[in-house]
Amino acid sequence: MTDHSKADLDDDCEAMTPSRRAVLGAAGALFAWSFVPKFAYAAAGSRDPRFLLVVLRGALDGLSAVPPIGDPDYAGLREGIALTKDGPDAALPLDGFFYLHPAMPNLARLYGAGQASIVHAAATGYRERSHFDGQDVLESGQAGPGRTDSGWLNRLIASLPPGETVSRRGVLGVGVVPPLVVRGSAPILGWSPPRMARAGPDLMQRLSDLYGQRDPGLARALTQAIETEGIALRSSMNGDMRGGGGPDSVDGMKRIAEGAAGLVGADDGPRIAALAFEGWDTHANEGGAKGRLAQLLGGLDGALAAFEQGLKPVWKDTVVMVVTEFGRTAKVNGTVGTDHGTGTIAFLVGGAVKGGRMVVDWPGLKPEQLYEKRDLKPTTDIRGVAKGVVSELFGLSGPVLAERVFPGTGELAPMRGLVG
Questions:
Q1: End-to-end CA distance of the chain, in Å?
Q2: Residue 36 host element (H or E)
Q3: Deepest in the core among 71, 102, 104, 141, taking most CB within 10 A?
Q4: Residue 319: is it exposed, middle or buried by C-beta count within 10 angstroms (0-12/13-18/19+)?
C-alpha cells in the first residue's frame, strides 16, 4: 500500500426499495433500547469525534469519479466517456496521475486543504455482482451475505462503554427504513426528511400518554423520536424541508446531508450516522464530463459541502466516509454505460482526515492486470480502511474490531494513518 501524495448484466439489477430491505433484514429495528458491551476497548483521545457513513447504492464507477488519466490504458478502455486533463470540462488535478471528475470542485478544494483522501482500487471481500448481496456485505461487515441482521456500525456502538457520549447517543439511521449497517442491539435513532406536515404537540402528548399506559416499549421509542425531532427543530433542519427530490437527486442529497449534519452536530445528538444516496447503477448513458453520472457526482459534492457547513463547530473532529458496494467494468458497454464490476473508490472527508493524499496500490489497466479481464482489480480491502478510521476516532483496539465489529477478519489489519 502506498500514498500516491457472476453475472454479466447482472443478476436482474434488483430494485433496492425500502420494502425489499424491510423484508430481508430486521426492518422493525428502528428503535432499540438495550445492549451490554462485553469487549475491551482502548481509551479514546480528548476529541469529541463524529463519524458519518454515506453508502452510494448502485455501484459507483470509480474510474470515472477519480480517473487515472496518467495510466496509458485508461482512455482506450473508456471510449466515449473518458475524461481529459485539458480542454473544456477538464478533470480536476489531484497528483498528476489521478484526477477528479469536474463535477466535484468542492471535494477538490477539501483535498487541496488536506481534509480529504481518496482510496482507489478498493472493494470488500465480495466478488459477485448482486447489488443486494454486495450491500449486505458492505453494511454487515461480514465475509458473505445473509450471515447477520446487525450492522458493523451498530456493533461498534455496542463495543463502547455505556458511559461514553458516543454509546449514550446511539447511532442515527437516516431514511424511512434504517440501513442494515446501523441495525442491531445498540440504540438506534431514526430520521428522514419530512414530506408532509408533522404531528402537533397535542397529538404527540396524547400518543405518549396512551403508549405509557398500554405499551412501555412503544412509549420509550416515541420518547426517543420526540427527542430526535426536538434536536432537528433546534438545529433549524425542519424549517421547510418538505417536498424536493429523493436520495438520487441533487436537491435530495443536499437536504438529507443537511438534516444528518444538524443532528450529528448537535451537542445532545448522536455522534455516528449512516445514510444512503441512490441511483448509481449506470448501465446506460453514463456520460463523461457531463451526463447522468456527472449529475449524481455533483449532488454528492453538494452533500459534502452541506456536511462541512452543518458540522462546522465539530468539523475538526469529523470523518465522512463515502463507500459503495462494488465498482463497474473497466470497459464501456454497448449502451455507453458500464456494467457491474469489482474495484472502486472510497472517499474520506473531514477535518479529522489526514488528507491531501491518494491511498492506492495501483494495479494497472492492461488486460492481464484487470480482474477477470474486465474489472479494476481491488488491491485494498475497504474493511481495513473502515477499521483504521474507527479505531483512531473512537479508540477501539484491534481485537475488538476483529471479534466484534468485523468478525472473522483478524488477519486484516486496520489501515493506520488515515485520521490526523
A1: 18
A2: none
A3: 141
A4: buried
**Calpha distance 242→303 (Å, rounded):** 17
- List CB contacts of 5: < 8 A, sequence separation 6 or more: 95, 356, 357, 358
Grid cell 449514550 is found at 168
- Give which of 62, 181, 155, 136 is closest to 325, Cα–Cα: 136
Q: What is the distance, to the nearest Å, from the Cα of residue 273 to the centroid of all Cα atoms in its chain?
A: 9
Q: Which of 54-68, 184-198, 262-276, 337-351 has the lowest mean pLDDT?
A: 184-198
Give the whole-number percent of the chain exceeding pLDDT 90: 68
Rg of the chain in Å (alpha carbons): 21
Is 122 in contact with 381 (CB distance < 8 Å)?
yes
Which residue has 428503535 as its cell numbers?
31
Write down the residue that cell numbers 483478524 correspond to.
Answer: 410
Dig out the grid coordinates for 191 from the structure: 430520521
pLDDT digits (tens, 9 = 90+) for 125-161: 999 999 999 999 999 999 899 988 899 999 999 998 8
- Cell numbers at 221, concatenated: 421509542
Residue 142 to residue 406: CA distance in whole angstroms: 6
- Cβ atoms of 142 and 132 within 8 Å: the answer is no
CB-based contact 171:157 (threshold 8 Å): yes
Q: Is there a contact between 339 and 282 (Cβ–Cβ < 8 Å)?
A: no
Is the pTM above the cut of 0.85?
no
User: What residues pair up with 93 in beta bridges, in sequence order?
Assistant: 99
User: Using an 8 Å Cβ cutoff, are 416 and 388 in contact?
Assistant: yes
Burial of 372 (0-12, 13-18, 19+ CB in 10 A): exposed
- What pLDDT was estimated at residue 219? 59
Q: How far apart are CA 177 and CA 275, in angstroms?
A: 10
In angstroms, the CA 167 to CA 237 distance is 24
**Residue type for position 328:** R
- Give the model's pLDDT for residue 372: 96
Which tens digits make up the pLDDT trace of 288-309?
999 999 999 999 999 999 999 9
Residue 330 has pLDDT above 50, yes or no: yes
User: What 3-state DSSP class applies to 116?
Assistant: strand
Cell 466478488 -> residue: 127
